[in-house]
Amino acid sequence: PDPGTLASVLTEGVKNTIGDSRVKVTYEPEYVPAVPPAMPDIPPEQLAGMIKATVKVEVLDSNIAYLKIQHIIGEEMAQKVGPLLLEYIWDKVLPTSAMILDFRSAVSGELSGIPYIVSYYTDSEPLIHIDSVYDRPSDITTELWSMPTLLGKRYGTSKPLMILTSKNTLGVAEDVAYCLKNLKRATIVGENTAGGTVKIDKIKVGDTDFYVSVPVAKSINPITGKSWEID
């Protein structure tokens, strides 16, 4: 008689069976599938202002940069507002002698942002195989490589980089941290991250209002041969 309670019981049963906390059963009679938003047709200055609201930048004592990021933008957005972000954010931290990347509140992001961010902390040559993402619905594996050219200058490979994590650090930010850690480019400090995924689909169960949320893509690091997901 109570679909919500049934969904909760089913979720617990699934978790106990397969040991994956990301798989959930929900009852959503009003559910409407989300459509990925198109690139907003608004001035780059306004877009940059929106992005700045999710980023905090400071130069601390001892010339250490502090960069707090809540959302990792994708390459398309970065190309559109990049010059403004360079002026507002990146140019302030480039002269510093070390950097702290704060991902403790980073809960969203775009897959194309992974090589974009990682490349700022690596050399332009040789190109580095950063990550591979297998997408089950399409049966396609996409390799992510470092980028030979970027907007602005790279932070480089010699200056210390520390990444702060928390139990809320989720998805793309987890991938960035894992890649930089295994490239021996960054030191990770903080809690174990959420153990999310790069992509989740919500699948309708027959002719009902029940849905199963399940990971449908997997990140595989070329160095470890493993995934950061769930770990």
TrEMBL record:
Signal sequence segment: none
One GO MF term: retinol binding
Gene3D superfamilies in alphabetical order: 2-enoyl-CoA Hydratase, Chain A, domain 1 (3.90.226.10), 3.30.750.44
UniProt keyword Nucleotidyltransferase present: no
Domain of life: Eukaryota
GO biological process annotation, one example: proteolysis
Keywords, sorted A to Z: Receptor
Domain (Tail specific protease) ranges: 43-231
Keyword Transmembrane annotated: no
InterPro entries, A to Z: ClpP/crotonase-like_dom_sf, Tail-specific_protease
Protein name per its UniProtKB record: Interphotoreceptor retinoid-binding protein
Lineage, uppermost ranks: Eukaryota, Metazoa, Chordata, Craniata, Vertebrata
This protein's encoding gene: irbp
